[in-house]
Write a structure and sequence with these properties.
Distance between the termini: 99 Å
Radius of gyration: 32 Å
Largest sheet: 4 strands, antiparallel
Low-confidence stretches: none
Structural class: alpha+beta
Helix content: 10-25%
Number of helices: 3
Shape: globular
Number of strands: 8
Oligomer: single chain
């Protein structure tokens, strides 16, 4: 049996059976749940209070904002050819964020910025581009006040890089406001 490798096989089989027996024996052992670390966080740990309902939005406010968004889209018209960037949404106050949209410009040239707002007396539009050649800070290309209910248009020269359009409500607004805005930036084709 030694000549055919039988002793090595027997030793290996015995070790395998012993390891299997130990594993099976340990599998039957019970360990307390607190031995494995912290228990998973339940719903009460996440919400701060057991069973506290999540806040809901006032349905009348949501309906007014939706109506105003439809009005902004109607003012802006359909998506123009050469659309680079665009968006619409709630118009916060100067301390509360407002509406912002960014995009990467790959083609240098003149671009048309179109913006509108509804639900507030006025808003402020700014268009900023990432640092240009020879500059270390962003370049503000356009600063303009908008009369809500009207469409504002302006032309800006853009170079490759990131461009951001930002609209904020001038004066009081906040989370309970129905003021909304929309902005589009599209490549401007020179007419014949």
């Amino acid at each position: 049996m030694v000549a055919t490798g039988g002793t090595h096989w027997t030793v290996r089989a015995a070790l395998l059976l012993a390891a299997g027996s130990v594993a099976a024996g340990l599998a039957g052992c019970a360990y307390p749940a607190d031995d494995v670390g912290l228990p998973p966080a339940g719903p009460s740990a996440r919400s701060g209070a057991a069973g506290a309902p999540l806040p809901t939005r006032d349905p009348e406010l949501v309906a007014a904002q939706t109506r105003n968004l439809l009005n902004v889209e109607a003012l802006l018209g359909g998506a123009p050819d050469g659309l680079l960037s665009g968006g619409s949404g709630g118009l916060g106050d100067s301390g509360g964020g407002g509406l912002s949209t960014s995009s990467i410009v790959t083609r240098a040239g003149q671009y048309k910025v179109t913006a509108a707002c509804v639900g507030a007396p006025d808003a402020h539009l700014s268009v900023v581009q990432s640092p240009r050649q020879g500059s270390i800070q962003d370049s503000t290309l356009l600063e303009r006040s908008l009369d809500c209910g009207d469409v504002a248009e302006a032309l800006v020269d853009l170079v490759p890089g990131t461009v951001t359009a930002h609209l904020i409500r001038e004066g009081a607004g906040g989370p309970g406001s129905v003021a909304v805005a929309g902005v589009r930036i599209s490549f401007h084709e020179e007419g014949p």
